[in-house]
Amino acid sequence: MFSIDVYKERRDKLKKAVGHGLILFLGNEEVGMNYRDNTYHFRQDSSFLYFFGLDKPGLAALINIDEDIEIIIGNEPTIDDIVWMGTQPSLTEIAAQTGINKVAESNSLGILIKKSLSSGQAVHYLPPYRSDAVIKLSDILEIPNTKVKEGASVILIKAVIAQRAYKSALEVTEIDKAVNISNEMHLAAIRYSKENVTEKYVAGIVEGLALSAGGTIAYPVIYTVNGQTLHNHPTNDTLKKGQLILCDCGAETAMHYAGDLTRTFPVDQKFTSLQKEVYEIVLKAEQAAANSLRPGIRFLDIHKLACEHLVDGLKQLGLMKGDVKDAVSEGAHTLFFQCGLGHMMGLDVHDMEDLGEQFVGYSEGMVKSKEFGLKSLRLGRELEAGFVLTVEPGLYFIPELMDMWQAQGKLKDFINYDKLAAFRNFGGARVEENFLITESGYQLLGEPLIKAVSDIEGLNRL
Amino acid sequence: MFSIDVYKERRDKLKKAVGHGLILFLGNEEVGMNYRDNTYHFRQDSSFLYFFGLDKPGLAALINIDEDIEIIIGNEPTIDDIVWMGTQPSLTEIAAQTGINKVAESNSLGILIKKSLSSGQAVHYLPPYRSDAVIKLSDILEIPNTKVKEGASVILIKAVIAQRAYKSALEVTEIDKAVNISNEMHLAAIRYSKENVTEKYVAGIVEGLALSAGGTIAYPVIYTVNGQTLHNHPTNDTLKKGQLILCDCGAETAMHYAGDLTRTFPVDQKFTSLQKEVYEIVLKAEQAAANSLRPGIRFLDIHKLACEHLVDGLKQLGLMKGDVKDAVSEGAHTLFFQCGLGHMMGLDVHDMEDLGEQFVGYSEGMVKSKEFGLKSLRLGRELEAGFVLTVEPGLYFIPELMDMWQAQGKLKDFINYDKLAAFRNFGGARVEENFLITESGYQLLGEPLIKAVSDIEGLNRL
């Protein structure tokens, strides 16, 4: 945890922004994998962490703005809890850790809420993404499961984003730590890659490093020879000579801040000439995008700039033709780059994604596009100092999508369909780094991790 | 997956046992860690795996026994699914993998169920342990969340247990594989243990090995110097000279069968003499219990036998006194051994725990005890050939529990309370192995893993 004052200040600011009523934060619960008590690793809700710092299941928090009361809700430990889980702090001790001196037992939460509702107070809560939270809210608010999500408070959502979007120095230090652990994971990923080992073999080592460093993975490890598939999990297939590996993985620190990096490298020590050509197009787009980061520029425009660099490279490769800007504005590049250039990062790897991408990534009056490609751009808004984000262009050769477009003759003035056949089994390439927006521009987070072809080829395999 | 015939035979047997009506199996869904799309690793429901073998989220299965119809329910993949997740089989292809030729879209499940209910058919389903399943069942059965669990079918529960409790040769081979991977995890745990590394450092390596082997962990890794806490997670504390480590971890194979082993060993290369004494009491109890395994004996009686061995050892250590059998029947040993000797193992590490321990671990007419100690014995029933189970006695020195009993003067004819002080910081020791009950006795699963003091001391640290 940070110091108590950090959480108190955050809550004071939040109370001012929301103005009136009751704010209810539900902490996360344990989730059973294959039965109730065989649980996944516990992950606390990020907004709960941000405002309270308490990293334990079974908690909730109630802020009565009008009466200026804060309450931590949970259950007192029993002797059975101590036998099975070790010495446990009392609820009062837990609350004190975040500077709150009022507590209540879980079964009284419904009554507290009902009292406020009947006295005309609004109850603000964030949209739940876990089913147990839906059930809990349905129970205490006495509304059906299906009505819970739509009852979430837009005022609260906006107030939370207005704080969490700007990372403090303390937070940047944590993210820096996360990126440096992620660096170690990537170096291991490259070094352990070789013919005849399985994808899962290497991915297991990589995930183990995140755990050994004291936290966990920030998201499921992507380590695949099918890099064209954007969210691919490692398989038990063995690596083969000539294949290209895309590894997208990052650590979450013990304090739950994320790193999020991607590197692309060959199974063999050296890239083939085609792999090198494609990879360097992506690398150039990534560098150009990074160099443009600064307060005041819209990330949407940096996305477009990166797309132009990709199209430019694809033209040199013979896959695309025509005017670069026209190609991008028509969306022709989305045959090869189907997603967005990046996203906010913090306590969540896609920071605050549960609060809604429109609110997080777009400013008032700027509506997220529904078009293929742009609909996957999570961040479009004007950048501000304190934002932390990823830049991650890529080129993805998806046979099903190429076949579909070709059959439709889609945007054929920009695509050389006769040249696509050679890329059916290419896979995909992506480079991803993490940046802080500063007053004057940007700062790379973590120590620089190798990305030039010569550096990757120069790293000896184990 | 096993061959199609395996799943067909299992379903035919189930239909006969249940007799009439509709059987609804819900496969598991993805669960978001900190937002919906950042998911934990997917874990299919074990009964769904057992009867259908389909290892994918978003599926359900409906068996209409009266009309002899089997249907797989899910959604057809979209082009977006292919872009984000790669080439996807159609629902019909998925169903064919388990020998079913009828499919329906997810949104038709409620209608199918309603038709059956209105025609007077009973709908059998297993008790849900995930909140999303509760919401789904509440929706399709049109009952409140709180009524879902009590509506689960006891006929179906018993029929499922009557099949899953007896492991086939194919299943035993998979469990054997899981135990052998678990062996590698334990050897690494011992070898990487040394002064000044953190618990999480070693636990991360151990978990990485489970992933690298192609599956995952069967349950959260326990690796702790506080072995007296029964379910303890590794911390970022560093290991110190003189400490005793308890490591309880096991792999789950790619087919989701579990291994479950425990070893206890010192941070240093050598046990202290007290550590050795306590450890060897536990080891002796474990061996005595294992040697008694055979069809026809109640596991409750083997549990008692192990407890007697523990008490015998504790008397020699000076911690207990009086008649051994009396001490066990009075429950005096539960000050040091608070839990049960073992449990069934299979697709779940605590096999079928979600179906209810009374049904799984106890036969008709044999009611699970509510007493401290025995209430945690998951398995009491008469053993039969084909059962797979763990044997895991231990000695746990829990300061809070010792203080509580001492203050009450509880069972003071059996406990030498004046001798307890020396054990306040001892921690705990456990040895655990996995066995198949055979026609003639038992068989150790996996290759033998070192457990003698001399073998553990002889394994060089890294």
From TrEMBL, chains A, B:
Q: Which Pfam families does the entry mention?
A: AMP_N, Peptidase_M24
- Which keywords fit this entry according to its UniProt record? Hydrolase, Manganese, Metal-binding
Q: Which reaction equations make up its catalytic activity?
A: Release of any N-terminal amino acid, including proline, that is linked to proline, even from a dipeptide or tripeptide
Q: What is the top-level taxon of the source organism?
A: Bacteria
How is this protein annotated for GO cellular component?
cytosol
Molecular function GO labels: manganese ion binding; metalloaminopeptidase activity
Q: Which family does it belong to?
A: Belongs to the peptidase M24B family.
Q: What is this protein called?
A: Xaa-Pro aminopeptidase
Provenance organism? Dyadobacter frigoris
Lineage runs: Bacteria, Pseudomonadati, Bacteroidota, Cytophagia, Cytophagales
